[in-house]
Amino acid sequence: MEVRKGWREHHFNQFVSDLIPLDRKLPDFRDTRCPQIFSRSLPKASVIITFHNEAWSTLLRTVHSVINRTPEHLLEKIILVDDGSTMPHLKDRLGEYIGVLAKVTLIRTTRREGLIRARILGTKHVDSPVVIFLDSHCECTEGWLEPLLERIAEDFTIVVSPTIDHIDANTFEYIAQKYVQIGGFNWDLKFIWRHIPKHKFQGNEYKPITTPAIAGGLFAISLEFFKKIGYYDDSFEIWGAENLELSFKTWMCGGSMEIVPCSHVGHVFRKSFPYKTGRSMLKNYLRLAEVWMDDYAKYFYQRIGDLREDFGDVSERKELREKLQCKSFEWYLKNVYPELEIHTNVLQYGQIHDTRGICLDSSVRPMDMLGTVDPKPCHGHGGNQFWQYTTDRRIKRDDKCLDYSFDALLLTNCRVNAETQKWIFENKTKHLRHVLTKNCLKNAYFNDSRRITVDKCYEEQSQVWIIS
Ligand code: UD2
Ligand code: MN
Q: Which domain holds residue 318?
């Protein structure tokens, strides 16, 4: 009962979290090569933690981990921003609890603002040179702060993120990352983790490494630089896209971004999404694309099909970009994120569907090795049903290719010249013919198997496909 209530309210195992001490000890996860003494004088930082209906134990464990593992002289204050929480434990009880903690202040928004405006509000209360943001379910480990501050001391235009370790949402075990990953995204503009490209990898895995984007929740930034680039777009609602807004403009407007492997902070990654955002998230993405992506916004629009939403007025944000003389999105792609594929070789794109409104659907995620392909009713919103048919005869979903080998139809990593990934779309018959086996893609949704299969070609409704 109790356990289920925790999952329902917080989308993690609150019951277990409550059993763990608020100031639990954690091992030192740093690589032995990480410096422990810093010669440069480091600037002071304030830590901002915004929360909406966070559980008591996760919120306070975050606070205690900061207090316990941050050298006194480097911490200006911890600012908790309550973003319209309704749960009773976050009212007087929280006020009283933190009232006796030195350096911790609590401010409350007058209404639910969403994490973006809540963070901006927190920033107004900062007077240290560096601001650090943490989610309200984190744990900082030994030596987490200094290597972040060191980078900013060296250059105030570097925005730094720690290595984000996993705190298991079920057991609350702290699981340190074995390999450093960097951030990225596909044309859907959702943040993804990426392996470090080989050319950046030089046996110095403990050194700060540049990243095209950050996950968004845990990072340090110079207050002056944050102000200069216009904080966040304050018309963003509730959750989402602010991480890429910050990433794009940091790079395009004269700064850079790094992941700092020597700094370890744990975060509870939830298994399900806890908010009702309505269509506000889409609004954020549209504002992001409109302001920062120039002509490349079209790839995002292709990717979301017919989804549209009123995104309000973006002229102020465009003026800001103008005023700062930021570089183009093209520059960013070329110099910072060349790994993002630009689809210049696309013959046709959209849904791949039959005449009865059934679409090829694949929910493969960028880090997955393989994905299945299933027949689902078409929804028209791109996403898992957005495909591209390319000049080299591949059928792609983001960076994955439709592959047929050993009787298995899967989405796999695209490989150069892989014959198993070649398909011919025949204009006359509307067949999608697999080059190697000469067989055809078939929709068995209405037959026995309810699957997408590959079969001998014949003139049949189940082998007729439309790409649109
Ligand atoms: C990730 C980021 C998160 C944010 C988000 C995109 C990490 C680890 N987390 O999702 O910080 O960048 O992507 O927007 O990188 N909150 C509010 N008001 C709200 C909703 C949330 O204050 O209306 C708080 C929430 O309590 C938490 C923080 O904002 O402390 C981030 O929210 P999340 O933990 O639900 O986001 P997450 O980790 O799924
Ligand atoms: Mn979070």
A: 280-335
